[in-house]
Amino acid sequence: MAEEWVNWSGSLRFTPGVVERPNNEEAVRQLVTQALEQKKKIRIAGAGHSSVPLVKTDQILVEQGKMNGVIAHDEETRRVKVLPGIHIAEIGEALVRRGLSMHNTGDVDFQRLAGAFGTGTHGSGIKLQNLPGMLTGCRLVDGRGRIREFTQENNPEMMNALRVSLGALGFFTELTIQTETARKFTREEYCTHIDTCMEHLDELINKNMMFDFYWYPRNDLVKLRLCNPEGEGMNKLSFAHKIKHEEGWLYQILPRDRKLKFDEMEYAIPYEAGPACFQEIRKRVKEKHRQYVAWRLFYRTIAADEGYLSPFHKRDSVTIAVLQNNVLEHERYFNDIEPIFRAYGGRPHWGKKFSLKAEELRPLYPKWDEFLQIRKEMDPEGVFLNEYLKEILGV
Amino acid sequence: MSNKAVGMKKWAFSDGYIPVQSTGHEPDFVSSDKLSVLNTTKEDATINITLYFTDGEPVGEFKIEVKAERVRKFRINDLIDPQAIPLGVAYAGVIESNVPVVVQFTKQNTAQSKLALMGTMAFPLD
Predict the structure, then answer these.
(1) With an 8 Å Cβ cutoff, are A291 and B27 in contact?
(2) Which of A240, A368, A376, B103 stands the most exposed, by the fewest C-beta atoms within 10 Å?
């Protein structure tokens, strides 16, 4: 048996049978072929930031860390080929050296790119898609041990299935991403009251490339976070107190260090329902939960996309996240808030805590059955399935 | 201006209790325990707070910076690092600083709409 595997927050622990660390595509192909021959299962581990048991296995856990780096880039199209295990922070720096940038990042940057894609990781910005929106092509080893190659131009429907695929369709060995010309950004943070924030919410969202806010449940204050290309967006807000100003490349100033560990549940709800959903949760937290909850709620916006299992499938969305210190009990809190998210048509973040199973998830995703059909074709033996995936996919 | 350091490096308070309920507009009228730390020295103060409970292990250290020749006020309600403390339970605290400081402890109870406010000095230990 290998050593115990522990995720970032410490809320997920298991001991895999063996941990493999392939360093090239052929090694991955051999691992899958051997697993098929021995009728064993494989799960793929990224950086371990997720807090649901997507990676849990008592058989073969495959880490991506040795498949890390930039392979090539096309100056004309600004498309870049990378290996799946590259960290978000590493690719940010590598792209800037080439005069390029990702369109957005999440709140933290230590995920590996394939893992971030697989769970639908996102940042904030009403015109910006989630991170897998960058994916325009890939190579992978499927569940039959075959090396497959897909592109947006030749296989658009397959790419829509692959963008948020939970590691259920195969092991990515190469990712092609659409990048942008790098430019300098300004990031500002302000403090104000939640009522003031909600009065100005529409303009904050629509006049800034990236905007999100934290609400603090024990004092009703908020932190507004604005990030824009230099010279663009709102500045000198008259209704809030500025507490921070930063300038730099996007990858340098957007993600935050998160040394203090927490558990989190996040749902994506239709954009128009965001304020009402947030206010209902705010009322609920103040009435029932703040005896034990001091951590903030996190409100972001994300543009619609076509990913079959993307929480933002065909709808502009607001995401609202509830957080709790990882050393404190979170289930009673999360379980009480989750029905509010669901009442607003919420779709859970695949990498964070949620309780839904396949029969509750299927109605939320119009392309659910198409995804399952593709999964069956890509992995008929279920070599990439674990018990958790079987539960949430219903296979 | 005198450069004389005022205060002590170690303080304690024993009557911590933050009501669960509040009335009135927040944050001004939220029920709270507040610490006010005065640092008259030329050096930034690093404050470490350990909280003790009637039932359960101590929690800490909460770290607070108070810049040189400044005063800083903060609600204990708002602390989350290393973890949030529960409201509605009795607790006490020990405050340690790398430089002499003056610590005042203020309780605000708005569980009913008639504001109740009480301030006292924390107890100097050195």
Answers:
(1) no
(2) A376
- In-domain check, residue A360: no
Say if the Cβ atoms of A260 and B81 lie within 8 Å: yes
A63 part of a folded domain: no
Domain count, chain A: 2
Contacts of B76 in chain A (CB under 8 A): none
Question: Is A216 an interface residue toward B (CB < 8 Å)?
Answer: yes
Q: Residue B50 and residue B63: Cα distance in Å, rounded?
A: 9
Q: Are A23 and A67 in contact (CB under 8 A)?
A: yes
Domain CATH for A248: 3.30.70.2520
- How far apart are the C-alpha atoms of A134 and A146, rounded to whole Å? 24
Q: Pick from B26, B80, B86: which is nearest to A295 by CB? A: B80
- Residues 6 or more apart from A106 whose CB is under 8 A from it? A88, A116, A121, A122, A123, A131, A255
Of A110, A155, A165, the C-alpha closest to A132 is A165
Separation between Cα atoms, residue B92 and residue B105, nearest integer Å: 11
Instruction: Write the ipTM.
Output: 0.90
- What is the distance between the alpha carbons of residues A321 and A278, in angstroms, rounded to a whole number? 10
Distance from the first to the final alpha carbon of chain B = 25
A170-222 pLDDT, tens digit each: 999 999 999 999 999 999 999 999 999 999 999 999 999 999 999 999 999 99
Residue A113 CA to residue A84 CA, distance in Å, equals 6
Predicted TM-score (pTM) of the model is 0.94
Chain B residues close to A294, C-beta within 8 Å: 77-80, 84-85
Check: CB of residue A81 under 8 Å from CB of residue A73.
yes
Is A123 in contact with A299 (CB distance < 8 Å)?
no
CATH classification code of B8-121:
2.60.290.11
> Rounded to an integer, what distance in angstroms lies between the CA atom of residue A29 and that of residue A37?
12
Is the Cβ pair A325, B27 closer than 8 Å? no
Q: Compute the distance between CA of residue B32 and CA of residue B23 in angstroms, rounded to an integer.
A: 12
